[in-house]
Amino acid sequence: xxxxxxxxxxxxxxxxxxxxxxxxxxxxxxxxxxxxxxxxxxxxxxxxxxxxxxxxxxxxxxxxxxxxxxxxxxxxxxxxxxxxxxxxxxxxxxxxxxxxxxxxxxxxxxxxxxxxxxxxxxxxxxxxxxxxxxxxxxxxxxxxxxxxxxxxxxxxxxxxxxxxxxxxxxxxxxxxxxxxxxxxxxxxxxxxxxxxxxxxxxxxxxx
Length: 207
Known about the structure:
207 residues, alpha/beta, two-stranded antiparallel sheet, 6 helices
């Protein structure tokens, strides 16, 4: 137990708790030896306990996309904040944290015109239409993104995002006008293991 840290959820009382590996190098080295993994893989410097399930989903999907697209660099939100070039392309820092993607996939090209960047959003809880419209408008008209994949828990979230994008963003998104109907893709967020492919994505028209 000296290798673990007990953490509680704010506002839910002392019984609502979970355990995480202590982040000291010594603790991670011991646990890494037990699990036969490097201590670097156990480093989670920006773990947000108030979003435990969401953070867990992000970690799983990041690993899934790394295995699916080994030629791409796959980063979570806290990993690209310090990258000045990527922050410039994604407009990091111009607005609040909730306006940034959960995960990004980046091709190995060094030239901005050749580089491909795809954002991934894991949608566990419904967002307001205003917030969705702001985020989708940023992705489609301002940020240098080539597409967005929304992983949704159910059809309600899918329909909500699709309707906001189609009615409030698509017609004004001149940057991606030639493929606007394919800029946002959807799939089910249920993670069934690294050997199971997610459902085939839908395009925004629902076809």
